[in-house]
Amino acid sequence: MIDQLLTMFVALPLLGAGISAVLSRRPRATLTLLISVLVLNAVGGILLVSGTAGGEVYAPRVGDWPAGISIPFILDAFSALMIMVSGGLILIAVVFALLSGTGRHRLFPTLIFALTAGVNGALLTGDLFNLFIFIEVMLIPSYGLLVLARRDKGTSRSVTGSRIYVSFNLFASSLLLAGIGFVYGTAGSVHLGELAGAAQESPHVAAATALCLAALSMKAAVVPVHGWLSRSYPTTSPAMTALFSALHTKIAIYGIYRLYAVVYDGDTRHLWIGIVVFSATMLVGVLGAVGEDRMRSILAFHMVSQIGYILIGLALFTPLGLAAGIFYLIHNMIVKMSLFLSAGAIESRFGTDRLDDLRGRIGREPVLAVAFGVAAFSLAGLPPFSGFAAKLSLVWAAVDQAQWAVVAIALVTSLLTLMSMLKIFNAVFAPTFTGADPQEPLGDGGAAVRVYRPTSLGLAAPAVVLAAATLVLGLGAQALLGLAEVAADGLVDTTRYVEALMR
């Protein structure tokens, strides 16, 4: 049954994109279709996880063409986890976009459909060239969403952010395509089943695949090529910042994990490079947040820092390290979107995310304060939230490999992250010292009155749901860690993955 379902994760969103484009002048119908398909996508992801929890691998032959010629779709525990979580997060981000007004444009459903198809395809493909294609299918509608949902339309900051995002991703995509071309030229194939272990056998294939990994690292915002993210993400709408944070860099990280595990077969000779670069990413990202004065700008730099944590799991390349990295990846997707949605709810309510402009104005937002506080403490790695289990697993994996520098950097970065989150919380959510209600003008030119209307529960609900999820994952960490261990086993030993692709 799962074999027949896999292609539908790409075909159904693409069909939805076509239908919504035709019916673009009937917004109620297209939005109903969008929510329905996204719900099916999320529920389908749960079914995929249940079907791969025992280490099963599924690889249907599309069109019944033989292996090496057919378009390869393949599912294992790692890709199933990613599809389930990304599907749920896309749905939540779309709900927030509709509630905040960002999703009212008639092209919004079409672009979201196309983006969803690209995400699912990138997670399911077993072919390097198709990975490039699906990443572009994901990115092209993102360019449209970036323009349609710019926060400060017409301002130089917004235009600059959009330009940086588009131009950098086009460059990284060109580099990725060049790398794939070199892989084909040196190995004679871009099929992952045929490339298994090829980097250990041929230095030319290793160099060509390294170019692909470099391009994916650029898309993942790994130091020193991280500046594009911190300069572009905060300039679009809050809903799109949250959506992009959960998808774009994470798909690139998935690609890095998959390529190194399959093509390099976990070759330990090159792992020291990852240890150095990813440790620097942890530290540089958190230090970059120090000088920022906007909520989303601070969170964007912390996003860079957390990418370093996730990829350290790959650089350790042990069953424990990979499981910790995958656990951290899932945790971070949820927590980061929760934080961005909390910031987005505040910005939608007050029209700004600048700390100095918000200071003392919203001290009476208990729902958003709790949602942001839970996600912030989880990001910093405090118990009983998912961040604690994620960081503890990662630190333990580093200790197991005697990577003491990684342990020290991870702990220092966690402390700085906590301080940064407290900086936001105290500036935004702490009540005024006088205990007086914030003043708001009444009408045009009206006198200020001591009236405060809290943010609507509907706008706050997406952040609250994700904050609750990080608490549940923290208290029941063993369940997710068990799935992450199954996924890690499939990366340490790729035999079943490769055999399924070659059948």
TrEMBL record:
Domain NADH:quinone oxidoreductase/Mrp antiporter transmembrane span(s) in chain numbering: 126-417
Gene Ontology CC: plasma membrane
Main location: membrane
Spans traversing the lipid bilayer: 6-24, 31-53, 73-99, 106-125, 131-149, 164-185, 205-229, 241-260, 272-291, 298-320, 326-346, 367-390, 402-422, 459-481
GO process terms (BP): ATP synthesis coupled electron transport
Alphabetical keyword list: Cell membrane, Membrane, Transmembrane, Transmembrane helix
Membrane topology (UniProt): Multi-pass membrane protein
InterPro entries xrefs: CPA3_Na-H_Antiporter_D, NADH_UbQ_OxRdtase, ND/Mrp_TM
Subcellular location: Cell membrane; Membrane
GO molecular function annotations of the record: NADH dehydrogenase (ubiquinone) activity
Protein family per UniProt: Belongs to the CPA3 antiporters (TC 2.A.63) subunit D family.
Protein name per its UniProtKB record: Monovalent cation/H+ antiporter subunit D family protein
Organism: Flaviflexus salsibiostraticola
